[in-house]
Amino acid sequence: MNELAERVKEISDQNVYSCYQCGNCSAGCMFTDEMDTLPHQVITLVQMNDKEALEKNTSWICASCFVCSVRCPRGLDVAAIMEALREIKIRERGFRKIDLRKIKDIEKLPQIAITAAAQKFTW
Amino acid sequence: MSEKKKTMATIYIMGKAYKVPSTLTIMESIEYAGYRFIRGCGCRGGFCGACTTFYRIKSDYKLYVDLACQKRVEDEMYIVQLPFIPAEKPKWDLDKMKPTTDEVIRVFPEITRCLSCNVCTEACPQDIEVMRAIQAIRRGDLEDAVNLTFDCVACGACSIRCPAEITHYQAFQLARGLYGKYRTIPSKHLLKRIEEIKEGKFDDEIARLVNTSTEKLEEEYKKREVEK
Amino acid sequence: MVIMVEVLYYPGCSLRNTYPEFEKSTYAACEKLGINLVEIPEWNCCGVVPSLAADNVMRHLGAVRSFIKAQEKGKEIGTNVVVTLCSMCYNVLKRVNLILKEQVDTLKNVNDFIDDQPDYVPELEIVHFLNLLKNVGFDKVKERIVTPLRGLKVAPYYGCALLRPDRPEGVPIDDPENPTVIEDLIRSIGAEPVEFPFRTECCGNYHIVFEPSIVEMRTKKIIGSARLGKADVILSPCPLCTYNLQHGNETLDRSEQVPVVFFTQLLALSLGVKSHLSTEIENQILKKIGGEKFV
Asked: What is the DSSP letter of B108?
């Protein structure tokens, strides 16, 4: 197992080598319009130990809706793999994806939304 | 009469070992060791929260926190002081806010990062249930949060330990401010006193004190009712 | 006549702060149905989104602390069932409970860390309110209906959290690809569920905070699908979805908007108790079931 795949396995407990690129996950994903790379393509990058997988916006546009995980014919939890890619970046010292003190329209946003974003994008 | 031999304790002030009488508080023992406080020392009475001290005891992995002026030393105690916990106080205007927990979360959105780890409660030298108060804010219960944090001295120990980087004491201050302004009955005595001050009832008295010499003031101070 | 079901109840933060109508209409409906919701004392926030990282237990702590309190309260009243209204809370609590039941190491890790409370023994059952109603029986619900909402066309929105993921096994409250429980509820209160292909699509979740355009894109499609099915209202089981859909409504013209209500509000209305709907929407619904057109 290559270094990146090993790290993804540690965090998500998923073996990216199960993926045979059927594309079901990308077909079911409702957020692909905003992504620069499709979910199954990002998994290929991980299989090839390509750190670019961490720099694509795919894992950040992912909304954790789990359609991909439900439809994967190999039973891979694709949403968990996306979370692992996010976590690798989030856990880096000094990495910061969001600033909670600079939320636009915070007067209108409900607490549940702020909590979800805070728990997802910070450690 | 023979002098009883006092028991001594070994303490390590920022790594350097000292033998101090074991009956002293941490603050007294630091001064016994020859240090002079210019920061991290205030009321010496457990109220101002200036002397936050972290320590470990030999062979114990646990990290403890206490106020140096209140806590007696223990043998093999490793200490460090944190006279200031870094945090800017965000500006808020109570007049423009409502007495809800939503308002507290708007000023301190990092409260939503709380993991319920409870490290804050473990750190509090005032035995406040800090996590419970933060969760009360998340549960929408302002009154609960206010009642639980009445004894807070803003020492900041909870905030330094918090993985979610919450400044609890600031959030509690806002909660108490909102509650006090909007949901408590105003004190009749206080309102009356404010009126009296506005009417100038105490102006002459204050003017007299301001124009009295220091020596005369000291004399009058020693002769106060409470001293008799 | 009165069914007496007593269960533990986990409210969740949004029901106290943002959408009190969701909880109030539920209490009103429950009184009519003979369901007693006993709130867990001193519950902790669940975290809204489940942690998908298998290598740490950090984000499970809020849920586990709530379970411990539920466990103690449950012993008092003699139940191990915890009911939630919010689907996000359901998803987190259900997942954490299943993980702790499956993974002995994780359970030990968490119990060791939480050293100021008794250990959690994973015997609680986490149930969403819709499944509670299903277990009570939709026919029993129908018996107690006072105002059948005949003629009202309702779009049953499920969202993600009630149906996915299907691993660990036990999370979906119904078939993830073809659920029917909300449609069953709608029929039991006399209303008509409409064809709504986008009923299990994601509303955009947490993106409302930093990328609201994603939410607008998703919710426009969901609302559009409901409108194509000629729905009068969209029924929602989730406070975050409700906020996102209402946000989506605001970006549309008046003629394209479809009002969003919580499922317990329509349930309460049909049971003849206080629905806590806005006056405008309640009047429109009553007009529609009275034979007039829904504006």
From this structure: -
